[in-house]
């Protein structure tokens, strides 16, 4: 298949997904968002598997990738609902940190234009003697940045799912047609029986 086919497009989509997942993983690590970190890690592994299957003509790996894209879309829809506080969810809860810490998204304090206001806490000394009071001046609220990230992931995953199904169907058709013409036959189609030749040589050496 040429470079303009669905196979090359799927390779491009997997590469794009891999780069986007790595970027997202970095910021989730900075924000100590443990649930997204685990989800991103699984996503990276399966995208690499899908990329390998596409390059090496392995339909089973691409099927695993296609199934995962459906799970990945569901996860990102949940993230959008979480930050938009849909269905009783709260962006201020500790759900994404497994209730281990009170950290929020890294973008909540480091978004574009954000300025952090600090004030000393009375009666506490040492390295933790300051606490963030407020974050002001943000050009875009952090929850919308997270929503944009998840929306982009959903868009690429949906396109990847479509192309994965297409590439699997093409690979399957090629395997079936190859099998039909005897590609997987243990004996070649034009197998020559060597027995008559052996008999001819034997007749040559018979005494006159």
Please describe what this structure looks like.
It is found in: Cell membrane. By secondary structure, the protein is mainly α. The chain has one domain. It has 6 helices and 2 strands, in the order ααααββαα. The protein has helices spanning 6-30, 34-55, 59-83, 107-110, 142-180, 195-204, and strands spanning 115-120, 130-136. It has a two-stranded antiparallel sheet with strand order 1-2. Helix 1 runs antiparallel to helix 2 (34-55), helix 2 (34-55) packs antiparallel against helix 3 (59-83) and helix 3 packs antiparallel against helix 5. The chain is elongated. 23% of the residues are buried. The model is unreliable at 180-195 (pLDDT under 50).
Q: What characteristics describe this protein?
A:
cell membrane; 2 strands; Na/K-Atpase_Interacting; transmembrane helix; 6 helices; two-stranded antiparallel sheet; mainly alpha
Computed Rg: 29 Å
Structural class by secondary-structure content: mainly alpha
Number of helical runs? 6
Low-confidence stretches: 180-195
Shape type: elongated
Largest sheet: 2 strands, antiparallel
